[in-house]
Amino acid sequence: MEHLKAGQGPRRTRTALIAVSAASLAATSLFAAQSASAAVPSFPDNVVVFPDRDFVSIEGFAEHAGEKAVIEVTRPGQGVIGSAESTISGTDVAFEVNHPGGVCWGNGTTHKVTPDIRPGDVVAIKFSDGTSQETTTADAAVTGDMTRNGNTITVSGHVGPTVNKAQMEQRIINPDLVDTAVAKRDIRAVPGPLVPAAKGGYSSSLEFPSADTFRATYVFDDAATAGIAAAADLGERAMSWQVEDADGNRQGLTIAEYGELGGPGMGGCPAGPGDQAAPQAGAASVVYSADKTSMQVKWTPAVPQAGAAVVTGYSIAAIAQTVTGGQQVQLGMRTEANATQTTISGLDPAEKYTVEVRSLAGARMSEALTMAPAPATDPGTPGDTVQPTLEISPAPAAAGGPTTAESVTLSSDGQIFFTTDGSPVVSGNLPSDTAQLYTKPIAITGPVTLRAAAFDQAGNSRIFEGDFAPPAAQLEPPAAPTGLNATPGQGSVTLRWDAGAASVTGYQVTVYNAAGTAQVANVQPAETTARTQTVTGLTGGTGYQFTVKAKNAAAGYGAESAKVTAAAQVVTDRVTIGTARWKAGSEFRITGTGSVVGATVTVYRATSTGTIGTAITGANAAVVAAAPPGIGDYDIRLRNGSVPATNPGRIFVKSSNGGVAGPFTVSTK
User: Fold this and answer.
1) 595 near 575, Cβ under 8 Å?
2) 238, 275, 311, 365: least surrounded by Cβ within 10 Å?
């Protein structure tokens, strides 16, 4: 038996993927639908999850064309781990996240990370009118390379206890199969014994040797076709879905692709939890020495990704742009994790270089922060001794003594570095270790000596030193902030206020309880430079008072603002609807989950406008403990004379703790 692709690492084949559409593939039985997850979209709408590539395809929702929607990935016990905003196109594919032509994770939201989507994660689409639909990522995936024995190919995988095995399919995709007896770009195995494919060329079966495994078997009419299938670059897929309707449309679809890597699906997207971020460009710089045989490289450390391995160091490389024999000379250094600069020596003065800085996390290396110095004059041109310009605004006082200014602006035809801590700005003929790259006006918050140096790419420099002090008024504490307002949330209150003077360097929020006692511990972080802050951990329905005060670097905090009063909303639990089925005169049954064991859930009819209507008599039950990974389950069953005379149509479920799920369409047995 030949084991295919032995010894190869994971494959990344993003550009070869052809986007799928529920509407376009329904006829081929790709999107056949059912009814097993809370608010699973109904055909032609769908939320399709590709967990191995952290990619989501939103399909349909044409009734929301032109509206913005938010995609949220929620993990039980952790909350939202990723989100993105985009506009519904009105076509079959409404939009995609983390796929070429789509938007990145973090687009229009505050979660600037590509989530590592895993089984059990809930991917929801939400609209401004409060409606939402979701897919729960299924626990079914191919676990190893396919094997071939003559005309037979076998694919094995894992299937979790929450997956409906009747709603699974395994596929192998290779467009080269179109020109064979298969006459299609993929081969498929569905649950059951070995049966011939409709178009011929092979027979297939999908079996479950044990409770948590599956095995797909393909027997081809000839060995050549088997070889083409075995050479598939797109790998092996396990497909499972939550809902299948009478027309065979598959809803709540998960497509697990063996061998694909997660993380950013296109350039510019944020790194994922397993991919350490690259160093930041904000204060990155490259400066040549005067003789052009060395360069100083500076960077701003990478911002750690949530859940990622810590940065263990940085790799810095100067890559010659000249290509000789298909190769480029590379010179470089590796530093420890707390480094922010290094010097690379041994450069060829007649060569041009591109600089790449990457963060290291153990054996992993980030994407590169790339800088191309592009000298103003050819590095090999001798005699360039013209100093760069350096202008300071406001200009230093002619009579000596400190110049009064709230900020100082520097400009040059080269790169500018500065210090304000009393240290030198130049060491040798390069910026000193403490010199910072100038990117914006320098705030003057107290008496300070400003040292600045401008460097051109020929290594020439010009130096400035002067004393500055803030206006006298800035030495006083800032006035109390104005415009403070409060917006209640569940167990929280979000505060916003107007901007203070330019000299303000931070704000502090204070919480007062009903007795007037300050509770600073409720506020995290204790200080902020933003003009908004959310106070969490509050008791729902209880009134609190809030103030904010501002500080500057010279005088500290000033007076508190006027108090505003707000009461946090009561924190509700979370309920879902899994199934809802009605059979005339026989049974009406609703199942689902709840996040609080012991809560009572009640079923309500939905009104014609999609709001909660009247309760259905007798349709309630308590949430009972469930085995991991769930928290609680409920099962409401009405029989015989208790069954509603007609199918209730759409329903809501509401918990005694306030959680609501719906509207959800009741199926007829």
Assistant:
1) yes
2) 365
What is the pTM for the complete model shown?
0.47
The answer regarding whether domain 575-668 maps to CATH 2.60.40 reads yes
pLDDT by residue (tens digit) across 179-210? 999 998 899 999 999 999 988 999 999 999 99
User: What is the residue type of 586?
Assistant: S
Name the more confident of 372 and 322.
322
Tell me 221's DSSP state. Answer: S
Counting Cα atoms < 13 Å in the Cβ hemisphere of 89 gives 14
- Cα separation of 96 and 57, whole Å? 5
Q: Do domains 280-371 and 391-470 have the same CATH topology?
A: yes
**Bridge partners (DSSP) listed for residue 544:** 566
**Euclidean distance between CA atoms 242 and 162, whole angstroms:** 10
Give the CATH number of domain 140-257: 2.60.40
3-state secondary structure 8-65: CCCCCCHHHCCCCCHHHHHHHCCCECECCCCCCCCCCCEEEEEHHHCEEEEECCHHHC
**Per-domain residue ranges for the chain?**
39-136, 140-257, 280-371, 391-470, 474-567, 575-668
Q: Looking at this protein, which amino acid is placed at residue 433? A: D
Which range has the worst mean pLDDT, 1-5, 161-165, 221-225? Answer: 1-5
